Amino acid sequence: MVSFNEFSTVPSLLRNVVENIHKPTETFLIHKKNADWEEISFEKTLERADAVASFFLDKGIVKGDRMGLMIENSPDYVYYDQGIQQIGAINVSIYPTLSEQEVTYIINDSGIRAILIGSPFLYKKVTKIAENCRNLEYIIPVFADYEKIALPEGMKAKVIPFSTLLETPVSEVRRAEITRIRTALRPSDISSLIYTSGTTGTPKGVILSHNNFVQNVKVCLQQIPIIDETETFLSFLPLSHVFERTATYHVCCAQGCKIAYAQSLELLAKNMAEIKPTVMSCVPRLLERIHDKAIKSGTAGGGLKSKIFLWALDIGQKYRNEKEAGRNPGLFLSAEKAIAEKLVFSKIKEKTGGRLKFMLSGGAALPKNVGEFFGNLGIKVLEGFGLTETSPVMAVTEYDRQVYGTVGRVIPGIEIGIQDVETKKIINIQTHETFQEGFECEEGEIIVRGHCVMQGYFNKPAETAEAIDKDNWFHTGDIGRFYKGNLQITDRLKNMIVNAYGKNVYPTPVENVYLKSPKIDQLFLIGDKREYLTAIIIPNKETLQEEFKLPESFFQQPQLFIEDKEIVDWIAKDIKKLSNELAKFERIKNFKIKRNPFSIEDGELTPTMKAKRKVIETKYAANIDEMYEEEVEVD
After folding, report:
1. What are the domain boundaries of the chain?
2. Cα separation, 156 vs 610, whole angstroms
3. Which residues cross the membrane (predicted)?
């Protein structure tokens, strides 16, 4: 375990690695270059970071200046980030999927002076809006042939290729200056502004200090001490999001782990087989897809293959239950588990590269049945919970003590409280030290205070005061409780549906019940101030096509919703069956099947794939009203 006593800023972490953990010539970054994987050493990474720092010092960039990044995960992100942070500049990473209007707002609100651009598409987007970005001086493309793309007339911002930055000479005098600035940085200095995607309202720039990030990494490594300098992480979640930034990038900078960059989400499975990672950060949706495909593949066609698959899962569950209860599984069950491993589990694990110690799931709640499925296979999935405003981790699963359906134990050094939504009375406060395996409490809003909490929202004192109360509690807006000593998330406070009879319904647990159906890919629950619940359902395209032999043209039809009775009845069958797991007021009474998924491009999802409730309810108001004009019982 790394000692953090002297290493309290983001750029100091990587310097510690080359001084105390690895030889400078050892591999740090891995990426696909043409047809081969290229390995980049710690030494080369730091040389390029110094060149970036030297270039910007020449251009007059000083401590506190905001510097933008709009680029997919890659070594270039690391060179730029390490370069600007060691001279005290502030990382402002922007989601590549944001609209021109949103990008303009963030560039202007933060006052970005230079921005790194990762693709021709993003380059065109930024050059188009450059004249409306008052502080933007430099646009820095990382790709070749950027000159072939025409620029708007009169654009004032200068275009400088990233290769020019990387080739900037660094004299000994300049290197000493960079070292002086880096070592003078304080833990309280700002490291990054991360703009919240938000399901409503204007994006807010979350101010995160070096201390926020470093302390978060430190305590997460204490909670999951099996991560060491031999790990290889596969990075594919966006570095513009705080989860991947901390859980992969900063953890690897602290421990000296290798980072391999996936080529794309489409090539992720192929990259996993090639890189053979030992750790991955992921989101629940990916794990749900792996779960669905494994179940479908294992049971397809029935017969002996299906029976063996289901038998193996049953044995895996029995074995896991014994181990988690602290009991010896016994000779016979252990022998059955070995057979299940050889016949079924090993084949699934091979597709992940065969070396995974664990996956860390964050960004949303992982359905309990999905976590248990991976546990039955012997693939450990740890869950973490937090927000951008908490840098991000507040709680994370301990490696040897897992409670499915929870997000783990409170991290060291902070307090998490549960506050009654109506009375505002604090029901309970838990810390890392007060952990008890059997402890439970009532649910309420999750509040937190301690080293993980942001400094505030950039340029927004009123919003900061609203989020952080006079006692320094940050109000997360999430509903939860403690269950078996671990934090359990119920839903978002703003998502709560209050029906016409005053019954409170939290959509997420209800939606998760219906999402057990392999026929359903997404489900959006409706019912605020209504007599009963309805839903907009997105079917699993692959399953739907296979069941009804549908051509691709079916999904390109102009009608937004599918009204074919056979398909409606097919979905209704699963809705009716799964409704039995819910209270009557939580059951869906009617639904519509949307032909295509909600999307970021249509403004229906945030960049982190959360549904924008107000947008969806407004956009489909007429269709929603139709569901309440004629009730259709499906439960």
Report:
1. 10-185, 284-490, 496-629
2. 37
3. none
